[in-house]
Design a protein that fits this description.
Length: 340
Amino acid sequence: MKFFDEAIIHIKAGNGGDGCISFHRAKFIPKGGPDGGNGGQGGNIYFISNNNINNLNNFYRKQNYISENGLKGQNYQRTGKNGKNLIIYVPIGTNIIDVKKNITLVFLKKDKQKFLVAKGGKGGLGNINFKSSINRTPYKRTKGCLGQKKKIKLNFILKADVGVFGLPNSGKSTFIKKISSANTKIGDYFFTTTKPILGIIKNTLNNSSISILDVPSIIKKSSVGKGLGLSFIKHFKYCNLLLHFIDISINNNIISISSAINIINFELIKYSKKILLKEQWLILNKIDLIDNQNNLILYINKILIKYKFIKKFYLISSKKNIGIEILCIDILKYLLNKNL
């Protein structure tokens, strides 16, 4: 299944019911007056955030949303039935944008947050409202008002504590699958991760949980649409920590480390310079395939002097489970201190 984090939908709140023209008729009341009731209110449309939804896929199956119209008024001064409200559920972290006005109406950041996006039309007045001392038999009523109509853009941003990125086949999906509940796809070909995937890790330090986000691989010229592009980087917005995975087994050449750092961060800066303000750790994966680790460590310490935004580096093997525990403990400690 594809992952959709943006959608355009059309909404139309219900129209108000028309007012009624009616006169009271009874056997023993020869001069019965007007008794036409008012029309019912058109149904409103609300957005409500729901913690159990994590994408906008449903909005690609259905783009038009209409609430019920109010019913017209009736005799005996009876008001027409109000139209039923329509509730549209979206994930937490959804921006509701009015396309025509090009403004954000609301950002739904909490579970069960409710927002009225389109108000139903007001019901019309029945002729009972126009009776006066000089007009005992008014043949006048008003029609119901139209409900609001809008074109809405939904822009969803996942909320995660840790973001993971890297070149293709860097082993990040294997890492996330090993430490979390995420059901990631693993394979020896480009773009095995084709959509953002969120995993949950139990934080044993304070009996809570943290979320870790795996995004599709970044390649050269991703910022101009090559590969799977960079639109998914917006999901790093709430991350407190970024993990940059590098496969150090490529040609057994440690020079490729500097090249990978340059490629990835050049593309990230093209998307947003703010990304480098976040804490970033370098994760050198597949260490089990490297013979001389001492030379590797000396080289890394040397090159990281010019990459001020990279705060730490780790040597791990997701496949052989080397260095995983230490890395996870440090992640948990860092996030715990960050949230104090």
